[in-house]
Hints:
The structure is a homodimer.
Chain A (H helix, E strand, L loop, with lengths): L15 H21 L5 H12 L5 H8 L3 H13 L3 E5 L5 E5 L1 H22 L4 H15 L5
Antiparallel strand pairs in A: 1-2
Helix pairs in contact in A: 1-5, 2-3, 2-5, 3-4
Chain B binds a DNA duplex through helix 1 and helix 4.
Amino acid sequence: MTRRSTTLINPLAGHVGFHLRRASAAVMADLAGQLAEIALRPAEASALMLIAANPGVTQSKVGRALGIQRANMAPMVARLAERGLIAGAPVDGRSTGLSLTAEGSAIAAQARSRMEQHDARFMGDIPPGERDALIARLAAVAKTRTV
Amino acid sequence: MTRRSTTLINPLAGHVGFHLRRASAAVMADLAGQLAEIALRPAEASALMLIAANPGVTQSKVGRALGIQRANMAPMVARLAERGLIAGAPVDGRSTGLSLTAEGSAIAAQARSRMEQHDARFMGDIPPGERDALIARLAAVAKTRTV
DNA sequence: TATTGTTATACTCTATAACTATA
DNA sequence: TATAGTTATAGAGTATAACAATA
């Protein structure tokens, strides 16, 4: 006899962090799947969104806004530039202002649509009046200082 | 003049998923730091908690409860067994029931204490009456079916 | 001095595929 | 047929360190 349904006692069930991690993993896996269809990773799509809204932004600022370190921005920017999705113009001797190419704008529009539908699908059950409170709660958690 | 404080427009700021990911990343980074002091990874500590509460559980069940695939449980179990934290007794020809050794129980107790303090530090600002609702919300998000 | 950008490197988590053995 | 466990492999994100060039 197969007893697949044996319920385990989960001492982590009362930890908010445990559920936060599980929820984030599920959301990210779905997002990755949605964006893979247009050959973008979540981090790449987020960067395109930010560049679209802030033309001329440097990769350092994009990284700071998204929580991605400088060292990890370099290969991503190189990838997007090689695909012809973004272009750079020097703003001073060491920085480059990034902007979307025509193709980059088209891809970014698709990414935006997919990301919005994705977010709505996962968060659609949350009453609109509670979403801002949830966002504020999550933002506060993200900014909790580390001891 | 350095303009570090230029505020970028973030089109993702209204997406719950964006903040969910940032919050989870911050929490996980802190948890990893807390557990590194007792030489445990978050996934290992979670597994020890589950084995402590369910002696004789198989690694497959631990994986299912934590969202870790069979293939990724194997090396973790081998690591914990090699350190002498867990031991296994055959339950049938293909499964092994896992339990904590004396040393494993001691480490698990430390892990539990650290994880509870960690969770309390991040979630302490949330009114107790709202925590269950937040957990329920996150659990629902985690179970949202993927299209 | 601080910041930008880059390269190299390593770790963790996750994912799939393929295989053996057992229920 | 389904499940348990293993092995190999790959991808993605993240982290630090070190360096050159510029502010």
